[in-house]
Design goal:
The complex is a heterotrimer of chains A (423), B (152) and C (379). By secondary structure, chain B is α+β, with helices and mostly antiparallel strands. Chain B is built from one helix and ten strands, in the order H-E-E-E-E-E-E-E-E-E-E. In chain C, helix 5 crosses helix 6, helix 6 (111-138) packs antiparallel against helix 7 (147-170) and helix 7 (147-170) crosses helix 8. With 379 residues, chain C is mainly α. Helix content of chain C is 65%, strand content 1%. Chain C starts with 12 loop residues before the first helix and ends with a helix. Classes of the chains: A mainly alpha (423), B alpha+beta (152), C mainly alpha (379).
Amino acid sequence: MRAAMLFPAAVAMALAAAFVPCAAAEPVPAGPAGTDRAASGAPRVLCGVCHPDVRVQFEQGVHSREGFDCTSCHGGNAAAATVEAAHRAPFRGTPKRRDIPALCASCHADLAMMTPYNIPADQYALYLTSQHGRRLVKGDESVAVCTDCHGVHEIRRENDPKSSVFARNVPDTCGRCHGAPPPGSPEGAPPVEGSPFADYQAGIHGQAYLQQANDSAPTCASCHGSHGATPPGVGDVDKVCGQCHATARGYYRDGPHARAMREGNGPECAHCHGNHRIARADVALLDTACAACHEPGSEMLKVAGGMKALIVGAREEIGHAHAAIDRAAAIPLYVEDYKARLEEAHTALVQASPIVHALDVGRVEQLAERARGIAKEVESEIDGKLGERWWRRVGLLLFWFYLGLTLAVLAVIRRRAREEPGG
Amino acid sequence: MTDSENPETGRQGGRRTAILWLTRGFLSLWAVGATALGIGFLRAPSREKRPGEGLVDAGTVSSLPVGGARFVRHGARPLFVVRVSETEVVALSAICTHLHCVLKWDDGGGRLLCPCHSGSFDRTGNVLAGPATRPLPQYRVEIRDDAIFIRT
Amino acid sequence: MAPADPTPARRSLAAWLETRFNLTEMLAFLSSFGVFPAELDTTRPFREALREAMRRPLPSYARWPRVLGLLSFLLFLFLVTTGALLAFYYQPTESEAYRAGTAIVRDVTFGWFIHQMHRWSARLLLVMLMVRLWRFFFQGTYKAPREAVWMAAVVTFLAATQADLTGRLLTWTTTGYWTTVRALEVIHALPVLGPVLMFLAGGTTPDSLFLTRFYVLHIAMLPAMLLALFYLHFNGVRRVGLSHAPSESRATGETARVQMINMIILAALVFGGLVTLVTLAPTPFEPAADPALTPQGMRPPWYLLAPHAIIEMTPTMLPRWAGGLVVEAILLLILVLPFLDTSAGRGVRERRVAVAIGIVILAIWLFLTWQGYSLEVRR
């Protein structure tokens, strides 16, 4: 009954609103019955009459479901039917960029409000320590504020896959400022060259996360933090990388590079591996990265060269052994035990590789030589077995030769026996 | 299989006997070959340990009193770990070097006794008394944290 | 020939032994397994008895058709020797069998040779025993007084198939394991023999216990049985005399010494053939058996394909053992064939009916074998 009366009332108001300068100067489409909450008994919210697309967005988000409405952030009178009445004080309107963090914090830093939802209340405090927050305080309004990452009206929960801060979407969200193709670019446009986003995408972390959907790979927030976003400082880089790469970090800290770092000047992870455009860690780095600081022909470069030679040598030997196993398996021969022994060689090699961070040639040598030894043993055993096949044919020929002679001898003996007088 | 008997007892002539023995030698090479085949086949394969196979877990240092020993089972070649001092641990073969009986540890006397012929060895494997003449072989001990590993 | 000097003569070793043992009896015992198709006089001294036996003219036995029996025994000797050597390395438990098998083939010196000799000799032996049965049938060599020879030949063939069957499982490869499972299906369906064999084998599923029993059957019981059967056969043959094809004349023949040399030549040729097969056509490497994974297309061994076909073709109204009963009835008829054939003589003309029936049965057997083979394909 009431719904039937609503429609003409809405049409009348729309016609009236057409003559009033208003943010949305188009005819109002009829919304689904009850969306202005008249049916449910809650106070009517009529902002959507003039701002329909905003209302649609807001209703997708989490705030609308928790009982907040437009006046929670914008102030004003939601029940008013005219613009002047609606925009009556206290009316904030569109908040200024530099005021947005404080505005969000008015609820989100309030523990009493946040605790029932089990949402932490430290985001604003963290934000103020971040590069974004510090710059904003100094007056730079080009940095990110809450709405740049979380959305303005359509704010979804962070575990909602459509949320801009859902883990899978974090690189794109950060990339909006830090290098992603600007909005309006055609599909498949490349990111801004040299930007963190472009480097991350090209690097191994980006490829693992974005292309191979490997959720254990890091995103921007994993290394920089989210609300307290700050690039790791000098001396702290290895702590960040060590969150995942604990073994490499352990060896690094035992080695001369970390000592140099502590004394004031030394390389950290990013010096050799890069920070965003991280290439796959390979012994080839020992050729290129060391020369960036060390003189050609110096002791240190010799150490690097030595370690590389050991690891590459072991790797090659394991490759030979694998090829031998494949050859044997093609015949086929039983190769499961050879494969198992080669696994041990692999393990030794894998253990040797991170030790280069400690620059400990002795330990690298121990493990690399062990890997090499096992691989060599396996290969020579297999080659021995494969060579056997040829020897068998040679043996067969000799056998027939000797058998032929024997048969001739036996034939002669038989002839003799036939000549003998029988009984 | 039986070879045919060839009794040429009536025949004279060195040449004949030479051919005869040559023939016998020629034919008996088959037997030689078969024997070589059999021996090659029956030669037991080497039981050398592969890399990484030889580490035996022998408990912890802290659970071994100074001057005490622990028996470590290891197939047919058991071992003793002896803590000779606060920091030093040795691993000895538990097989008597006389006639291969398995030794027993005598805590009271701090020595290893052989139940077969009453031989005895001291903490580091030297012969104290008894028919054995050679000391007990020692094995390399690796201590990682508190754990004792013996490399056999 | 002067009689042997009764006083101990230290001149020759043989003479020295002769006064302490009855060497002639020893040789006679060995010969009773087919080396000599004639009896040695064990009361005479060794050299004398041998000399006399060697000079005796005998009908040819190292030539077709009697060569089959000789070769069967020869192959049996190869099998026993190579089998004994293999047993030094083999371990008959579920967890170790495959590993031991591959160690023999790959790591032991000449292990591949001994193993393949064993395998090829087994295959040839079965073929030879079957061909021998057919030749006995078509040449009428089962008629009196040779009924026992025929029966021994039939049972020898059956025992050899059992030895082959028990041997297949020992490698614990995919083919070996699943072929045995299929064969057990057939044996399980036999009403009388089935339960007996299952009792000996220790159940119906090949597990570790089953494997050990198969192993014992394979290396001890069946070889002993085969040895006894061979002995019976050769003993019977020496009593009734070598059979002759009606066309062969009885009188001519070469001396035993020549026959023995023929036998050695034959053995050498067979050995050469086996070695060639072994070197050029060894059985390829196979993966280990996985009792949880039934591969496609596994069939019972070739000698069980015909019984398999008979059993599978039993209409579903009847119980499975009805088909097995048919198989057993056929076996029994084959066994007592000498008593069924009432024709007068051995010639083909006199046994027209029997020979005709034989040809029909051979054709049916071949057809059933092909049927049994293609049953799997159709599935």
